């Protein structure tokens, strides 16, 4: 009996051990994961169409590129050519001979107040001291200057006293003679642009900001071309934006060649190259437009002297023209004096003489510098720059 019980216990223990081993082996070997479920792929919504294309797209037979036939002969390909920029037509400037005479009416409209005022005063029956003081005031107001005014009044008093009775025609002739003497008929007013035994003539244009130097240089080119000269323009005003463009436009109108440099570059270098080009091409005249500068700025004035020295490495300057705004009056004389100390001024160009300018500035500036007025500007037109003619100028002052 005891033997049977022992056998049963042993059997139970063996079965327990075998069961534990079976469970442990199952834990060590996990079951393989289930295969992933494929995602549901839905077709994208069709792009909306309008009209006949609103129907659902149909499957069409597609061909490869080898199966597509090419048309016989290829169509010509149109090549657009760049637009041709036509050069502006060359203008023929108005002849300079007698130009101031033709512009006399325009000049007289703004200038003959001086002449009319003097004639009115001198026509009085009794010319007392008070009347002569009014004559002096009239001349001073016209920017004639103190010294020239005193000289003119003294001569007029003597001649009127000798003349006695005075008819309007006699007074006009008397006043014309004295004004011509004051303006000066014996000064050489020709532009020296034809030096002997060499080419080109070299002209430098200087002046204060705002006097119209670049425009005057362009108009002067027209004057020279009208007289049959070939011209090179040197755009040495490298500080003012568009100054070179402005000068080149003036040159293109009359067929003048323009030499320019980079904006802000050395003006002396541009001036040097302009003269060099003029010599190599055999042109008649080189006009050099310099930058406008304040007469009170020492550094700028010294630079102007440098431009002059560099140019003269080629040849001496034939003309140095100072451009003055005639409306500035006596202030223009201060500017002229400073420029004359830096460069040797050989001639004056008076611009804006058709506006509020007083005709007496011609006399004053000539006395101040000892150089003649050679050109006057009488308007905004391209051909309104005229060689100064004393007779025509005085006739415009006193009117008809």
From TrEMBL:
Catalytic class of the enzyme: hydrolase
Pfam families associated with the record: SRP54, SRP54_N
Compartment(s) where it occurs, according to its Swiss-Prot or TrEMBL record: Cell membrane; Cytoplasm
Residue span, SRP54-type proteins GTP-binding domain: 372-385
Region span, Disordered: 25-91
InterPro entries named in the record: AAA+_ATPase, P-loop_NTPase, Signal_recog_particl_SRP54_hlx, SR_rcpt_FtsY, SRP/SRP_N, SRP54_GTPase_dom, SRP54_N_sf
Top-level lineage group: Bacteria
Protein family (similarity comment): Belongs to the GTP-binding SRP family. FtsY subfamily.
NCBIfam families to which the protein is assigned, alphabetical: ftsY
Described purpose of this protein according to its UniProt entry: Involved in targeting and insertion of nascent membrane proteins into the cytoplasmic membrane. Acts as a receptor for the complex formed by the signal recognition particle (SRP) and the ribosome-nascent chain (RNC).
Protein name: Signal recognition particle receptor FtsY
